[in-house]
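Quick illustration, no need to memorize.
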Amino acid sequence: MAPTRKHSRIQKDSQFQRSIEVCQGPDCTGLGGGAALLEIEELVQEDEQGDVIASICSDGTFGSTSSTAVVAGGCRDLCTVGPNVHIRCGKHVLDSFHHVNDASSCRLVVESAGTGHSNGQCTPGSRNPCLENSESDLSSTAVGIKKIKSHSHQSMMARRSDRMRWEALRHISRHIAKCKNNDANSGRDNITEERLGNLKTICAQQFSSATTAEVSAATEESDKERGRRRANRLIQIIDNRLDQCLKKDSSSDGDNVSSDSGSD
């Protein structure tokens, strides 16, 4: 079966729209693909200098008002090396990254995508000039080397705060996945506003200690501000995705009412 992918409709000319596709297949999600999706979305917003609010398109795509779309992709049969992330130009895959399983590898992906430049437009077959080597940069070995170099520039406390945030995002992404699963089986366990509020509170509590650690680890005021911006954006992204579960659930209830009344 051909892999299914969700495409963003944020840009009018989707043929040349640059996007970052994060696999949300069962294996990749279990390995941290949900956390990667959240982390990369926030990094794209920060890189493009927009304090923009993440939005969810009606087709289920998670994106923002930024020029580079971040999309939830389907399985491409690379499960053994997941979580997998692909940089696309329209339907064309320009770069692929494997084992995207921590904050530093997410930064590498966003850096390689060249977000914040060319208004999100790209040319099929082209590669980002930031990438030094067209083939080796795609291997998990090269990604690992770059991750080690990235780690070497961080303090021990900064690396610890990265790990704390990543684990918090993994837990939160499970809540979001469970919410989506309940929505898909809405007859079994409907999402209510009260339950949604409780989920948001739980997510905020899980994220709080990671935010405190990041701000405490920062030595410069600019880094402290970055930590606060990151926290605010991620909470907004998470809230919007949880809200979408309620919207879809309400929509399905409306459809059921309409079908019931039509059958009378």
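The chain has six helices and six strands.
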